[in-house]
Design brief:
246 residues; Structural Genomics Hypothetical 15.5 Kd Protein In mrcA-pckA Intergenic Region, Chain A; Alpha-Beta Plaits; four-stranded antiparallel beta sheet; elongated
């Protein structure tokens, strides 16, 4: 976790660096994630550069607009998170999780690799809340199915909180959906399994962090209390002395 905590990469990216032989501990190349090192005692190098003191942690909430790619670079030249990070002058920031191209809403940007890994790992069951506009409006029977679990191509979904917020005849409805899984385009696929089209999807919350009134396309630094709440939600323990290199 040292590489991630130093803000050089996410945990997944750090593991790839290790597998590629780009990391050494006390002069020895390591290729297996999980090797341990003690900060201040062991010398860890990434691509030949000594891993120094950790960068100051940064935490930003960003209201992602539709048609923004949740990657640091886009080969097609589309507007992406990398452009956002450059604009706000963040140091080593990367997005926590993803929102698909056609979706909007809350996206957490940070250089805290350990927090990012925990927030996205399924074992921590972090709830994500979405406001979803669908067409046609779902029946009570369909909502019950969505709550109990839906069979998708990658297996059944877990229990979900699903509540209709607003209905406009039988044509459209706004639905509040909250899940604790992170499958690719899961909410869209849950509705599509019943022939229901998702017209709009906006993430409203990630665990205790909420979108609030943050305007579309804007970013703001998290308050200290918000950072503390996120860490508490995933049981962050900053007292460990020996850490995995990744």
């Amino acid at each position: 976790m040292l590489i991630a905590r130093a803000g050089l990469a996410s945990r997944r990216q750090a593991e790839q660096l290790i597998e590629d032989g780009e990391v050494t501990v006390n002069g020895r190349v390591i290729t297996e994630p999980g090797a341990r090192a003690v900060p201040g005692r062991d010398h860890v190098k990434v691509r030949g550069r000594l891993l120094g003191s950790e960068r100051p942690r940064e935490y930003w909430a960003y209201h992602k607009p539709v048609n923004c790619v949740t990657t640091m670079k886009d080969p097609e030249g589309r507007f992406c998170i990398g452009d956002v990070v450059e604009a706000i002058g963040g140091h080593g920031l990367f997005p926590v999780g993803r929102l698909d191209y056609a979706s909007s809403g809350l996206l957490l940007l940070t250089n805290d690799g350990e927090l990012a890994q925990r927030l996205t790992h399924p074992s921590f069951h972090i709830e994500k809340a979405y406001a979803v506009k669908v067409s046609p409006a779902p029946s009570r029977e369909i909502i019950d199915h969505l709550r109990s679990g839906v069979r998708l191509r990658d297996g059944y979904t877990g229990p979900a909180y699903v509540r209709e917020v607003e209905r406009r005849g039988s044509q459209t409805a706004w639905v509040d959906v909250r899940i604790r899984e992170g499958r690719n385009q899961q909410v869209r696929r849950m509705f599509e399994a019943f022939g229901i089209r998702v017209e709009k999807l906006r993430r409203e919350a990630l665990g205790p962090l909420t979108l609030g009134s943050l305007p579309t396309g804007d970013a703001r630094r998290l308050r200290q209390s918000e950072v503390a709440a996120l860490k508490a939600a995933v049981g962050m323990d900053d007292a460990r002395r020996s850490r995995a290199v990744r």
